[in-house]
Fold this sequence. Notes:
The structure is a homodimer of 208-residue chains.
Chain A: E1 6-10, H1 14-27, E2 32-36, H2 39-49, E3 53-57, H3 65-75, E4 80-85, H4 90-97, E5 103-106, H5 110-122, E6 127-128, H6 132-136, H7 138-145, H8 149-159, H9 164-171, H10 175-188, H11 196-203
Parallel strand pairs in A: 1-2, 1-3, 3-4, 4-5, 5-6
Helix pairs in contact in A: 2-3, 8-10, 8-11, 9-10
The structure holds a DNA duplex (30 and 30 nucleotides).
Amino acid sequence: MKNKLVIFAVDDHPIFLKGLIEILQDELTEASIYGFNFPFEALEKAEKLKPNVAVLDLDMPKMNGIVLSKELKNIDPNIKIIMLTMHKEPDIIRSVISKGLDAFVFKDDAVNELSKAIKNVLMDNIYISNPQILNQTKEKSEILASLTKTECKILIFIAENKTSNEIANLLSVSIKTIQNHRNNISKKLQLKGSNSLLKFAISNKEWL
Amino acid sequence: MKNKLVIFAVDDHPIFLKGLIEILQDELTEASIYGFNFPFEALEKAEKLKPNVAVLDLDMPKMNGIVLSKELKNIDPNIKIIMLTMHKEPDIIRSVISKGLDAFVFKDDAVNELSKAIKNVLMDNIYISNPQILNQTKEKSEILASLTKTECKILIFIAENKTSNEIANLLSVSIKTIQNHRNNISKKLQLKGSNSLLKFAISNKEWL
DNA sequence: ATAGAAATAGGTATTGTTACTTAAATTTAT
DNA sequence: ATAAATTTAAGTAACAATACCTATTTCTAT
Lengths: 208, 208
C-alpha cells in the first residue's frame, strides 16, 4: 500500500488558487491538496508535509516560481515541480524551461493538462503542454542569447529609458561606443527603422 | 416569495472562472451561478436566463468587460454589472469607472469583496472595493482625459509604432500637424526628453 | 603565442523627435 | 452670432537614433 500523494499549489491570486485546488481535487480524489497564496508559506510547510508535487505560478510578486522551485528542491530534491504560466511567448518559455523544472503547463490548458503533467512527473518524465509553441520561433531566442554581456547591459539601460548619452556617462565610455553597440544589437536582433531598438527593449524589458 | 437570484460570471481563464464560481456559490447558496469562458456565450444565454447580476473580467481577448457590459445592458438595462480587474493603476480604473458600471472589485480582494458588491448593487448602490486607490493620483488621469479626440487618435498611432511621417500620410495631413499634436500631448501629459511620448504610448497602449 | 571575439571610438549622413514660435481655418458650445 | 476650443500648418533649432564605414585596443581560448 503506497503513501497518500501530497500536492502543493501556489498562486498569489486567491481566486485562481481556489480554482486550481478544485481541479486538482477533482482529478486526484485520493491526494491531499494544499493551497498557498504566498511562496514563503509553502516553504514553511514543505518540511512537515513533504509534498510529492508542487504546482507553482511562474509570475508571483516577491518570489517568483523559479526561485520558489529552487528553494523547494533544496528542501527535498525529489519534489516534482510543475510550472504554470499565462505567457505564450516562446522566448520567455525557453529562458525558463532550462532551469530544472519537471513540467510546464499553460494556464489556459491547465484544466485538461494538469493531471497528465502530474502523472508524467511522478514517472520521472518531463512534461510540456503545447510543445509546438516552442518550435515556432526558435531563432529569435537564439539570437537574443547571442548578445554579449556588454550588449545585454546596454539593452537593459535602453529599456530603463536611458539615452545613449546617459549610458555613455554611466559606463564612462564614448557615446560612439554606445551607438556602435546599439547598431550591433539591432543587427543581431534584425531590427530596422526608427526607434525599433527602444520599442524592442521596452516590450521585452521583463526578460533581459 | 421572491425569484431565485441568477448570477453570470465571465472570465476567459478557465481556472479563475472555476474559482470565481466556487466563491459565488459559497457566498450565495440560494443563487443560480452560470459561468462562461467566452463573452459571446454569456450574451447568447442572457435573454433566456435573465441574470440579475453579471460579474465580468475587464481584460478579455476579443470582447473586453466594458463592451460586454454595454451589450448586456442593451439586452436588459436592469442587469447589474460588477467589473473585476487585476489592475491597480488609478489611471486605468478611472478611465473605466465612468462607463456605467455598478461595482468595481479588484481580483485580489474578490474573495472578501464580491458578496458585499452583489448585496450593494442589488440595492441600487454603486460599490467600489478599495476606493482609496482612486484618491492616490487623481491628477494624471485627469490630464489624460483632457486629451482631445485627435490627440487620442494620434497617441494610439504612436503606440502602434507609427512615426509622425506615417501618421501624417494615414490621416492625409501635414507632418507639421502631427509634430504639433505630439508637442501638445507631451505638454498636457507633462512629458519631457527624448522619445518620452513614445515610451508613454507604448507603456499605456492598453488604455487609450 | 596567436587567432578570433569583444569592446572601444572615430567619421558621415539621414531620419525622427523634441521644443519652441506664430497663425489661419474649422468646429463646438453658449 | 460670437467666443472659445480644436485642428491645421508653417518656421527654426537642437538633440537622438539609425545606418553605414573603418580601426585600434583588450580580452579569451586553443
